[in-house]
């Protein structure tokens, strides 16, 4: 029994999924104390879009620390914060004509979602929120109320009131017309559901099973919100920061959410940071009305600036486009044929292999476990954790991406050969 097993709470999860003692990491490789190397198709659950210990970002941090730069300042004005705001505005807002103000929240994504919900209610004077089945937005009480996963909700022992869950545009409900359904709810005097303050969504439901919304559906959703005066909140915490190619996952659809939540890779180095962007007309806060001790992570500001610069110099948008084409082709042509009805879904550098049709919840678990034994970190998501999620760093070398896919294919073949679902 390790000291972690002996003293850390039972709530720990990833140390069980990846049972090794890690000591170092570089780029898309993690190293254990016993010398084993792992190709990383996990990327810190999306917090390491630029890889482990990115050299450009690390140098910026080292320079700042050695200069005795401010490390903690709550929401005081600092050079690090001003530089981040100026850089982000120049590189990500101005080019896309986005007129957002910045709100720095607590250190993690759930803090940004909490602030978004609270702001939407304050700005509209309405209480209700519409969220989507399959959505994941965090596990603190406010964000948990808009998270649909029963496993996480049941741990709270509190009813998550004032939230209506709507079938997602795709998901397990197929071609369900969620927009018309919401129209009917609001137009029906006997629906029993009031007009909400906001609708919160992920353009790609990552933890929900890699379900990708279409441009047309996102555009229809935006028009629906505008017709009814409902705020549109985009949770870009996991699939933003360049994961799909564009920095914002909603950009390709041409929509402009009222509120955008960012975290995970916004700092670029795995440092805690979350951020809300929203229309100036929504800035209804009174000074200090929503606060937090760690809402100004100075080291994260420095790293985030370097990450934005690195993104431009490394042409990560084009890199993601190349890797998207490779992954789509490989997964569709090599892996989807290994058993009947294996579904492949994804966009950019986030893809899912859905094994739900095998009707055996242990298959995905066994494949992920065997991948780990073969030096590949891969996570499971979706209903019953039946979807293998591929989410490597955006700058992963093609050779490593190809090797990781080969290891995954070998493990899948070995596991599916031992079941009756094998087709050849």
UniProtKB/TrEMBL annotation:
<dbReference type="GO" id="GO:0045303">
    <property type="term" value="F:diaminobutyrate-2-oxoglutarate transaminase activity"/>
</dbReference>
<keyword id="KW-0032">Aminotransferase</keyword>
<keyword id="KW-0808">Transferase</keyword>
<dbReference type="InterPro" id="IPR015421">
    <property type="entry name" value="PyrdxlP-dep_Trfase_major"/>
</dbReference>
<protein>
    <recommendedName>
        <fullName>Diaminobutyrate--2-oxoglutarate transaminase</fullName>
        <ecNumber>2.6.1.76</ecNumber>
    </recommendedName>
</protein>
<dbReference type="GO" id="GO:0030170">
    <property type="term" value="F:pyridoxal phosphate binding"/>
</dbReference>
<dbReference type="InterPro" id="IPR004637">
    <property type="entry name" value="Dat"/>
</dbReference>
<dbReference type="InterPro" id="IPR015422">
    <property type="entry name" value="PyrdxlP-dep_Trfase_small"/>
</dbReference>
<comment type="similarity">
    <text>Belongs to the class-III pyridoxal-phosphate-dependent aminotransferase family.</text>
</comment>
<dbReference type="InterPro" id="IPR015424">
    <property type="entry name" value="PyrdxlP-dep_Trfase"/>
</dbReference>
<dbReference type="InterPro" id="IPR049704">
    <property type="entry name" value="Aminotrans_3_PPA_site"/>
</dbReference>
<comment type="pathway">
    <text>Amine and polyamine biosynthesis; ectoine biosynthesis; L-ectoine from L-aspartate 4-semialdehyde: step 1/3.</text>
</comment>
<dbReference type="Pfam" id="PF00202">
    <property type="entry name" value="Aminotran_3"/>
</dbReference>
<keyword id="KW-0663">Pyridoxal phosphate</keyword>
<dbReference type="InterPro" id="IPR005814">
    <property type="entry name" value="Aminotrans_3"/>
</dbReference>
<dbReference type="GO" id="GO:0019491">
    <property type="term" value="P:ectoine biosynthetic process"/>
</dbReference>
């Amino acid at each position: 029994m390790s000291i972690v097993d002996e003293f850390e709470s039972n709530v720990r999860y990833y140390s069980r999924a990846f049972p090794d003692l890690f000591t170092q990491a570089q780029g898309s490789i993690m190293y254990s104390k016993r010398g084993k190397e792992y190709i990383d198709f996990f990327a810190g659950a999306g917090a390491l879009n630029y890889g482990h210990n990115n050299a450009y970002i690390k140098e910026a941090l080292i320079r700042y620390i050695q200069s005795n730069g401010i490390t903690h300042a709550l929401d005081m004005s600092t050079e690090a914060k001003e530089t981040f705001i100026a850089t982000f505005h120049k590189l990500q807002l101005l080019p896309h004509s986005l007129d957002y103000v910045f709100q720095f929240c607590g250190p993690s994504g759930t803090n940004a979602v909490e602030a978004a919900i609270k702001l939407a209610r304050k700005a509209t004077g309405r209480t209700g929120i519409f969220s989507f089945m399959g959505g994941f937005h965090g596990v603190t009480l406010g964000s948990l109320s808009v998270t649909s996963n029963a496993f996480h909700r049941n741990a709270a022992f509190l009813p998550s009131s004032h939230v209506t869950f709507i079938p997602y545009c795709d998901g397990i409900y197929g071609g369900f017309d969620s927009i018309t359904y919401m129209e009917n709810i609001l137009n029906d005097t006997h629906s029993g559901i009031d007009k909400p303050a906001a609708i919160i969504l992920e353009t790609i439901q990552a933890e929900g099973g890699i379900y990708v919304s279409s441009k047309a559906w996102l555009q229809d959703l935006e028009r629906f919100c505008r017709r009814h005066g409902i705020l549109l909140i985009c949770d870009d915490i996991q699939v933003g920061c360049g994961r799909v190619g564009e920095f914002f996952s909603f950009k390709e659809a041409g929509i402009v959410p009222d509120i955008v939540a960012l975290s995970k890779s916004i700092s670029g180095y795995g440092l805690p940071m979350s951020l809300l962007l929203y229309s100036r007309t929504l800035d209804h806060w009174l000074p200090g009305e929503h606060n937090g001790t760690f809402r100004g992570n100075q080291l994260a500001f420095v790293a985030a600036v370097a990450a934005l610069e690195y993104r431009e110099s490394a042409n990560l948008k084009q890199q993601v486009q190349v890797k998207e084409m490779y992954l789509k082709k490989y997964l569709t042509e090599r892996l989807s044929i290994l058993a009947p009805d294996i579904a492949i879904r994804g966009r950019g550098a986030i893809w899912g292999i859905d094994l739900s049709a095998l009707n055996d919840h242990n298959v995905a678990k066994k494949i992920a476990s065997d991948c780990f034994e073969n030096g590949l970190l891969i996570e499971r998501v979706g209903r019953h954790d039946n979807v293998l999620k591929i989410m490597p760093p955006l700058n992963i070398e093609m050779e490593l991406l190809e090797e990781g896919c080969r290891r995954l294919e070998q493990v899948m073949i070995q596991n599916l050969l031992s079941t009756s679902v094998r087709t050849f």
